[in-house]
Amino acid sequence: MPHSDRTLWLLISTTLLLLTVPGVALFYGGMVRKKNVLNTIALPFVALAFVSIEWGLFGNGLTFGREAGGLPGGEAITGPLLVVYHGILASVALALIVGGIVERIRFSFFLLFGLFWVAAVYVPLAHWFWGGGWLANLGCLDFAGGAVIHVSAGVSALVAAIAIGPRKGYGRIEMMPNHLPLSFCGAGLMWVGWFGFMGARASESMATVTGAFVAVQMSAAAAAVTWMTVEWLQRDKPTALGTVSGAVAGLVAIAPAAGYVSPLSAIVIGIGAGGLCYMVVNYVKLILGYDDSLDAFGMHGIGGTWGMIATGLFASTEVNAGGSDGLFYGYPYQFFIQAGGALAAWVVAGVMSWLLAKGLMMVLSPRVDEEAEIMGLDLHQHGEKAYTG
Fold first, then answer.
1. Average pLDDT over residues 195-218
2. DSSP per residue, 273-322
3. Where are the domains of the chain?
4. What is the 3-state secondary structure (H, E, C) of 207-229?
5. Model pTM?
6. Mean per-residue pLDDT over the chain, rounded
7. Beta bridge partners of 367
8. 8 Å CB contact between 313 and 268
């Protein structure tokens, strides 16, 4: 892609990607209780602000090198723009963790945990997969963040939720969403913003980028239909939240594979994501008893892992000559290296998040006290109310 076209495409992608942050904020904000809405919405926006600065100061340099901005020999315009772009990617990853720990997390604890998490978890993984690290050298594929963003965020959310403990009354009192239309608006912004993830591959041909767009759409649609169908069969009624949750699961699962698989393979990946994420959110979570407030692990940890493995199954050089063939196209190695990459993300995210959470808990309480949790974090942490009257 010519320099001017690449810069223009990266500008468009960055703008689209930015929509993902308010998308996550609203998606999560509609599903919590009304006394915690503003706190839940605020955390992803704070993640965007803090991480953008952190990434510009040292995150990008540690991941890609100071001079390139993410592309070897990057140009004067494209380089700084890629720094902004990748800073937003890191912000999205941290914002996704919010879903596992809302409605009891102390605002100051989240800020400290997030700053350390980006340095200790996200930066190493981004370097390994995208910055010329060992996984990239072994041929592990992650087109748009299946392991770097979603596996890392989902596993970290689960670990943090377990370390911090469940919400008061979890499993005993009803915790109904306060405003599902907010969640639908958020999911819509995420769906549109997801196409911005394709900007990470600004050096790819437009044919590859176009194919990735189609794959994203097919996977999200297939996962939405699958979740809706399974829920309809099991519960006699398809829920609107279930359908949109399926779409999000499909977006997550296609992230690592988007530029490497055909539209038909993307549909299969979406079907798998809808079914797997539905089972984890509705059954595995209840059996194991952990309080992942808004199912960050069930959606992103599981969806991202399935997407990495599916890339090793369905990748095809007929779609992207610069990629690789997967197991179903005669190259078993790709399947095993994809599984290894997902495992590496699980280990780094799990171990480092546990150490970070436990280390910070030695100097700062991770959660608000019982009275504040009953009152609501909007009033206690911010002195505001989402709904008046």
1. 83
2. HHHHHHHIIIIIHHHHT---TT-HIIIIIHHHHHHHHHHHHH--TTT-TT
3. 3-382
4. HHHHHHHHHHHHHHHHHHHHHHH
5. 0.94
6. 92
7. 105
8. no
Dist. CA 129–CA 255, nearest whole Å: 13
User: Distance between CA atoms of 138 and 4, rounded to whole angstroms?
Assistant: 32
- pLDDT for 9 beyond 70: yes
What tens digit of pLDDT does each residue of 149-192 get?
A: 999 999 999 999 999 999 999 989 989 999 999 999 999 999 99
pLDDT digits (tens, 9 = 90+) for 128-160: 999 989 999 999 999 999 999 999 999 999 999
Query: 233-266: buried (b, 16+ CB within 10 Å) or exposed (e) per residue?
Result: eeeeebeebbbbbbbbbbbbbbbbbbbbbbeebb
User: Can you tell me the distance from the alpha carbon of 315 to that of 307, in angstroms, rounded to the nearest whole number?
Assistant: 11
Angle separating helix axes 152-164 and 302-314, nearest 10 degrees: 150
Q: Kindly state the tokens that stand for 23.
A: 């998308």
pLDDT at 134: 95
Q: What is the chain's percent helix, strand, coil content, to nearest 5?
A: 75, 0, 25
Which pLDDT tens digit goes with each residue over 354-389? 999 999 999 999 999 999 999 999 999 999 999 886
How many beta carbons lie within 10 A of that of residue 229, not counting itself?
18
Tokens at residue 40, please? 């839940």
Distance CA 126, CA 242 (A): 31
pLDDT at 77: 42
Dmax over CA atoms of the chain, in Å, equals 64
CATH 1.10.3430.10 fits 3-382, yes or no: yes
Compute CA 298 distance to the chain's CA centroid, rounded to the nearest angstrom: 11
Q: Return the closest-CA partner of residue 308 out of 274, 280, 344.
A: 344
Query: What's the DSSP call for residue 146?
Result: I
Find, among 302, 304, 329, the residue nearest to 314 by Cα. 329
Both ends of the chain: CA-CA distance in Å? 55
